[in-house]
Amino acid sequence: MDNVTSDPCATPDNPNLENSPGWSLAQARDVAPSTSMGCSTSVYRTVTSTQDIALQHAQRGAPHGHVVLADQQTQGRGRRGQLWQSPDTCDIYASVIVRKRLAAEHKPLLSLLAGLAVSEAIEHMLQDDSPSRVQIKWPNDVLIDQRKCAGILSENTGPKPMDPVVVGMGVNVGRRDFPGELAYPATSLMLARQSQGGVASPHADPPPGCRDSQPSAYQSPAYQPPACELRAQLWSTLRARLDHHIDAFTQYGFHGLRQPINDRLAWKQQPVQWCDDRGEQQGQLQEVDGQGRLLVSVPSGPGAIEKRAIRHGVVRPVGR
Question: Which among 86, 107, 147, 283 has the fewest CB atoms less than 10 Å away?
């Protein structure tokens, strides 16, 4: 197997690494000894999709926690086959192999766990006192200030409990510009930090190997590292949180993770719309239930309210 070793904590012999000035192997594997997520890592300069590469590695026996990282994707994808814009702007394009014993009905919950890990990592980087600034858009997106910052894609490789799942994560870190035709308004961690009042310092240079040419120090309220350094910091926190949540999920189930997801759930108690086999529907968003479904309340008659569970699909605020 090229790029992957059988030792889950060994450094892969990756010939593409030297062509990846944005990611260094030290950044990619900067984890605590007890953390399995990212102990085995393959880093690429450019790929069609980290998800495609990770699926290949999973089929060849790559261990639990193996990560595929890239600076750029030419065919990055999200749910429903949608294109994920993946320019070379120090964003996170990562796919993780989860090789745990999980029932088929529990595997889709990994998207929510990854969304929670991404949310917590972004909150840590923003160090913002507003708990509602970073939100989870069910079932697989993360928003900052109501703008999309990250997307999650989970793909199961088979029906058996030990068949691995590949969890892909795209996080906008260094991007400053977005195509006008995007279906949902977008932002990045860099833009969100700058909106907190950061002012560039003219005296600092970006670290070696970082392609971001912007000044590296921001002041008031906090130091603003360049995009590549910011990405490495975010990735270190993200994978530690993901590792923690997956371990908790496999040992204790979804119950203990449901509350922090609901605490961050976008549009709670607000009118939303979605489409199901009954056509276009409207209701009030309530919460995520113990099976990862989205609960909504809809009028069912004079003075009566019915709760429904949405298993899949696109949910959005009424009128958007």
Answer: 147
